[in-house]
Design goal:
transmembrane, 15 helices, 59% helix
């Protein structure tokens, strides 16, 4: 069992002096800002490595100052305002996504109880009994910045990108919420700090009467929920291969086509802040939060003091690398594939997994004989379903000759089946003029 070092609870919040609360807020903001600046550099370096090229390497050590130079360049670019734009919403929209993404970090636990200038306080800005729902609400509100940016630009392509973002949010918000239900069922709480504490304490699995200690990370205990959740947050943050609201190859630049200068930079940075915030949210729900991974957890002091802050950010960086890895390896999905994955795969899988998990947790409370009977009935139903499941035979495709015979009248003429293209009229005339004597009697020269 992983040693515990005073995990915070809801009663530990609300007692800090004002300067300590302000320091925590500044710390969360700095994490978001540095995560954005380093995230852009990290993505360019990793994708460059995957593409066998150096990436940014001129400004500063390892090119670390390249992102700062790009930010200064954007600040001095000309700020263009389209004539058909709604000026108020056009200016407000980029800030909405940025504010929602930064606010998500306020309920993320960065570490356990620590001592700061003699005050025992948790490394977390605040926590409430429904902190997970707060993050989901902020994630849903962030899409308003994209939709309003596309609508307020007064242009066709931004509007289309904003509409795509709305459809994408509806598709993946449902599966995102369903995947977290399993975490609520196992942890028994919606507080982020208490969910982390539940993973640190580990769980006990009651398997056929035998109590076995299980690992604490919900990513292992609830692996289907973890997979569905991670795919959903990639869609929520509009990251490749789910970047349909932008889709530069077909929509110029999507919802931010008409933006420039600092407003364009704000939209771009909000995407990276959301990526860091959702990575931290994933670490909190499924990867043990600030608890040290094995075998580091064997060390008795791994989960005490300021060390948990290191384990937390190491996990976040690992997930950010996965985001970048997906961008460097997977092509963008078609829009119909995007919708099909959300509605026909992720949502059914989440529903089936929740029903199975609820049944399993309920069966654990029964006697051994009752559990055997239930498992026997479920196994028999699964066997019968597998044996008698209707198997659709693939329809035989008609041959080429049948397609030619069944084509409607007046349709577009088909090329010759032997792929021998007949000569053009000009060629036939030239042949007829050069060799008129070679034409057999009774045959038209145009048929040569």
């Amino acid at each position: 069992m992983i040693p515990i070092a005073q995990p915070p609870s809801l009663s530990d919040f609300g007692h800090d002096p004002w300067w300590l609360v302000l320091g925590k807020i500044v710390f969360a903001f700095v994490v978001a800002l540095l995560g954005t600046l380093l995230g852009v550099w990290f993505e360019r370096r990793v994708v460059g490595r995957m593409a066998v090229r150096p990436g940014p390497n001129q400004l500063g050590p390892f090119g670390l100052l390249q992102t700062l130079a790009d930010g200064l360049k954007m600040a001095f670019k000309e700020d263009i305002l389209p004539k058909a734009a709604d000026k108020v919403i056009y200016f407000i929209a980029p800030a909405i996504s940025m504010i929602c993404a930064v606010t998500m970090l306020s309920v993320i636990p960065f570490g356990p109880m620590v001592s700061i200038f003699g005050h025992q306080t948790p490394l977390q800005v605040t926590d409430v009994s429904v902190s997970v729902l707060v993050v989901l609400a902020l994630s849903s509100m962030a899409v308003y910045g994209i939709v309003l940016a596309g609508w307020a630009s007064g242009s066709t392509y931004p509007l289309l990108g904003g509409l795509r973002s709305t459809a994408q949010l509806i598709s993946y918000e449902v599966s995102l919420g369903l995947s977290i239900v399993a975490v609520f069922m196992l942890a028994g709480t919606m507080s982020t700090s208490e969910i982390v504490a539940a993973q640190g304490q580990g769980v006990t699995l009651n398997l056929f009467g035998a109590e076995l200690p299980g690992p604490g990370w919900f990513a292992l205990l609830l692996f289907p929920s973890f997979v569905v959740f991670f795919i959903s947050i990639v869609g929520e943050t509009n990251r490749p291969p789910f970047d349909m609201p932008e889709a530069e190859s077909e929509l110029v630049a999507g919802f931010m086509t008409e933006y420039s200068s600092l407003k364009f930079a704000l939209i771009m940075l909000s995407e990276y802040v959301a990526m860091v915030a959702m990575s931290a949210f994933t670490v909190t729900l499924f990867l043990g939060g600030w608890y040290a991974p094995w075998p580091i957890s064997i060390w008795s002091g791994a989960n005490s003091g300021w060390w948990p802050l290191l384990w937390f950010f190491a996990k976040v960086i690992l997930l950010v690398f996965v985001f970048v890895w997906l961008r460097g390896t997977l092509p963008r999905l078609r829009y119909d594939q995007l919708m099909r994955l959300g509605w026909k795969v992720l949502i059914p899988v989440s529903l089936v997994w929740i029903v199975f998990l609820a049944t399993w947790l309920k069966v654990q409370d029964w006697e051994r004989n009752d559990r055997l009977v239930v498992f026997g009935i479920l196994g028999g139903i699964a066997l019968i379903a597998a044996l008698f499941w209707p198997n659709r035979k693939p329809e035989q495709k008609p041959t080429v000759a049948e397609q030619v015979e069944n084509r409607p009248q007046g349709s577009f003429p088909l090329p010759p089946m032997d792929l021998q293209v007949p000569p053009s009229p000009r060629t036939r005339r030239m042949v007829a003029e050069r060799e008129p004597a070679n034409v057999p009697a009774g045959q038209d020269s145009e048929e040569v």
